[in-house]
Amino acid sequence: QVQLVESGGGLVQPGGSLRLSCAVSGIAFRLYGMGWYRQSPGKQRESVARFMGNGGTNYADSVKGRFTISRDNAKNTVYLQMNSLKPEDTAVYYCSADGSTRGLRTYWGQGTQVTVSS
């Protein structure tokens, strides 16, 4: 059974930091392109940060310089370090395991709520 379990969300004041984790099981973690997405009420889900096929990273313009994606293949876990948080970062954050480049399916976590408010 494939599981992507996000954790680390919560309520934080503007300017604060959070670190999201996504623990993955049931798939060959190293074969998948891991990424973080987010969705706010009334908006489409958008890419926040993800690993590219060449091993590089891609960030949304709105989070460049503030967010950092990383992965630990030994722990089958991907992280999103979020600094200098803004109210507009408020959303449900989802972890994704994209296997499309290898002909595999894409999996999603259940999401974790991040609320940035004073």
Structure description:
This protein has 118 residues and is mostly beta strands. The chain has strands at 3-7, 10-12, 18-25, 33-39, 46-51, 57-59, 67-72, 77-82, 91-98, 106-108, 112-116. The mean pLDDT is 95. The strands form two sheets. Strands 2, 4, 5, 6, 9, 10 and 11 form a seven-stranded mixed sheet that branches. Strands 1-3-8-7 form a four-stranded antiparallel sheet, with no helix packed on it.
Distance between the termini: 39 Å
How many DSSP H or I helices?
A: 0
What is the succession of H and E elements? Answer: EEEEEEEEEEE
- Identify low-pLDDT runs: none
Structural class: mainly beta
Please tell me what the overall shape is.
globular
Average pLDDT rating:
95
Sheet of most strands: 7 strands, mixed
User: How many DSSP E strands?
Assistant: 11
**What is the gyration radius calculated from CA atoms?**
14 Å
What percentage of residues falls in helices of 4 or more residues?
Answer: under 10%
What amount of the residues lies in strands? over 45%
